[in-house]
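User: Structure with flavin mononucleotide, tokens only please.
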Amino acid sequence: MVDTATTEWSQETIAKCVSAVVRSRRSVRAFKPQPLRRDIVEEILEDAAAAPSGANIQPWRVYVVSGEVKDALAETLVAASRAGTVPAPTHFPEPLPDLFRARLLDFGARYYASLEIDRGDAAARMRQTEKNYSFFGAPVGLIFSIDRRLKPHSWIDLGLFAQNLMIAAKARGIDTCPQVAFAPFHDPIAAHLQMPPHEQTAFGMAMGYGDLEAPVNRAGMPREHRHEFARLLGFPA
Ligand SMILES: Cc1cc2nc3c(=O)[nH]c(=O)nc-3n(C[C@H](O)[C@H](O)[C@H](O)COP(=O)(O)O)c2cc1C
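Assistant:
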């Protein structure tokens, strides 16, 4: 493990590198066929596990699939989706508060415009949604799970683990897309991966070398200014 105080890099260089990596990460949904080396995947997983967790319980579990195992899982999920045997996704509450609904609509407009899909074309949107289940063609897919007996705050730990993983990947030139689209598919996923009964599928992730010229990867999702989401109190003006 690297202790930032003992590397040969200055604090300024470390800050610039971390900032550049964090800000260049984006959700990538088209990948080059280039495979990922197992040793690099292992390094990324070890970096991810440096994430904090409440009382250090480290509740994360992740299944990392490639090759035939990934392809067979994708095939199962596409079939389940087409058979309509999977519950409808319920990622957001109804009604969604106005601010969030506006952002969700803005995301959809940018996303489908980048793919030249008309918002009214339900079949084309469905075909695009289905690409989630084959990890958007990435060479590696990840399924994140957690012990279902834990409370919501332990799901925060899982999110921190996943973010570490995405940043560790990006630092090595590897792109990712976190995917809640897998959550409703717990039953076929658990059967396929032989998960223990207490485990719950939380989300998935595509991972590979992104085709950064592909239009879908060039949509760019805006962020609100820090004035909007943060209040700094007690600092001198
Ligand atoms: C928890 C979580 C779940 C997500 N699920 C999906 C998904 O199922 N499919 C997908 O294409 N993108 C998914 N995304 C990606 C978001 O759409 C993306 O993070 C957001 O639009 C911001 O864009 P950026 O990641 O490129 O900065 C998910 C992101 C997060 C954090």
